[in-house]
Amino acid sequence: MNDNVFSLIKSHTSTDINNGKIKSVGHVYLVGAGPGDEELITVKAMRLLQEADAIVYDRLANPALLSYGKPHCDLIYVGKKKDQHSLPQEKICDLLAALAGCGKNVVRLKGGDSFIFGRGGEEIDYLSRQGIQCSVVPGITAASGCAAATQIPLTHRDYAHAVVFITGHRQNGKMTINWDLALQKDCTVVFYMGLSNLEEITRQLIERGCPTDKPFAVVSQGTSSEQQVVLGTISDIAQRLMHRPLLSPALLMMGDVIHANGYALGLANQTAAEYRGVNQ
Ligand code: SAH
Q: Which residues are catalytic?
């Protein structure tokens, strides 16, 4: 985080706050950057990036997108690492508010879609309460991106009539998964942030009655040139990953749709180098 930006914010927040609200002349756009491949961004998002006075971006937003900013655009990294927030959420909200209070048009660029496990709801709420004008530009969420890149359809007339997105990460050390939701029949289940809890997630699902041959896929760095895919069943996927550890970000996908075609199997059998060839 750039110290100059912080002092800029301090000076402006102290002068522009009026009755607890920042006098907003700038505008904040919550923009979804898509899942990794820089081309998977909307035309609208691209235009806003080109026009922005400041881009406040996360770890999962493809950094190549920053090159579309104007020459003097402020580029501010506020990315979080697992269990380690480089900037607390309240500070990110303050930063956005202060930049808008300085009259800047701000793009808050997040991986995937801001409203899917992206804390976009918190930011928009905070900014609106401060009287700051905001707009939201949707992005392609990791589930859609990974589904497309592996050709695993999220829904399918023969295999899945519903799809659920669940967070697989722990909150205060506890799993918060709604297991009944994850065990629904004819459903594709996608776990975000579940890689480090894969063993426990799969064990608990089996203990709660999930068929032991339920197809399971893990997609790492989906849609990027580094994408890797491991396929298996709920019973053996954790072990498969022990033999072939994958990097984050990674998405866990569970459901019969994984067998809907053979493409994902082909990817899983390829090395990353071969996959790059396919992706070009
Ligand atoms: N707002 C984002 C999700 C943020 S939560 C979105 O809509 O996609 C972060 C989690 O998203 C990661 O832990 C991982 O589970 C998933 N994720 C994000 N990008 C991914 C990618 N390129 N490949 C696989 N999983 C990804």
A: 58, 80
Cβ neighbours for 201, distance < 8 A, ≥ 6 positions apart: 168, 175, 177, 191, 194, 252
Structure tokens belonging to residue 107: 């793009």
Q: Which residues surround ligand 1 with Cβ inside 6 Å?
A: 35-36, 60, 110-113, 116-118, 141-142, 146, 192-193, 219, 221-223, 248-251
Nearest CA to ligand 1 atom 11: 192
Residues sharing a CB contact under 8 Å with residue 175, sequence separation 6 or more, in sequence order = 168, 197, 200, 201, 204
Is domain 3-137 annotated with CATH 3.40.1010.10? yes
Residue 111 Cα to ligand 1 middle (Å):
7
What's the 7 CA to ligand 1 centre distance in angstroms? Answer: 32
Name the fold adopted by 142-279: 3.30.950
Cβ–Cβ < 8 Å for 191, 116: no
Structure tokens at 77: 């990294």
pLDDT along the chain (280 residues), means of 10: 55 50 78 96 98 96 96 91 72 95 96 96 94 96 97 96 94 88 96 96 97 97 95 96 93 95 80 52
